[in-house]
């Protein structure tokens, strides 16, 4: 990361985990199992390889792409270790690093961070629980929309023996 000047850059969080071997295997297995007759029919009709991919393969792969997107989303949402290694500027920390700092390490949030007077500040445990709820809410909101694709996408993209 230092050679590519990615220290204190958000790209240091994205690039190392941009491609997951597991997700590549799941998506590849799905595309291999597409009906060959469907692809042959498109070729007979004069479709190019890109047209076959865009008009046939992608619409059929919504389930597996939703599952892979969910895997990446949850992976990036829960990732804090790369931020711990590569980000020195606290203003660039992802939510999980803030969560780790204030909840797990027990660092107390000062009045400057909260913008309140000392006597009006809520108890530290209340702040920690609020940070926990905020970190869970986005996944809880997104998951029900992708849940219907989850079983289908994982099973259709699974390697069959």
Descriptive keywords:
mainly alpha; 161 residues
Describe this structure as you would to a colleague:
The chain is elongated and about 75 Å long. The model has no long low-confidence stretch (mean pLDDT 81). The longest helix has 33 residues, at 124-156. By secondary structure, the protein is mostly helical. It has helices spanning 11-14, 21-32, 36-44, 49-60, 62-78, 81-86, 95-104, 111-114, 124-156. It contains nine helices and no strands. The chain is 66% helix and 0% strand.
Summarize the structure.
The protein has 161 residues and is mainly α. It is 66% helix and 0% strand.
SSE blueprint:
Elements: H1 11-14, H2 21-32, H3 36-44, H4 49-60, H5 62-78, H6 81-86, H7 95-104, H8 111-114, H9 124-156
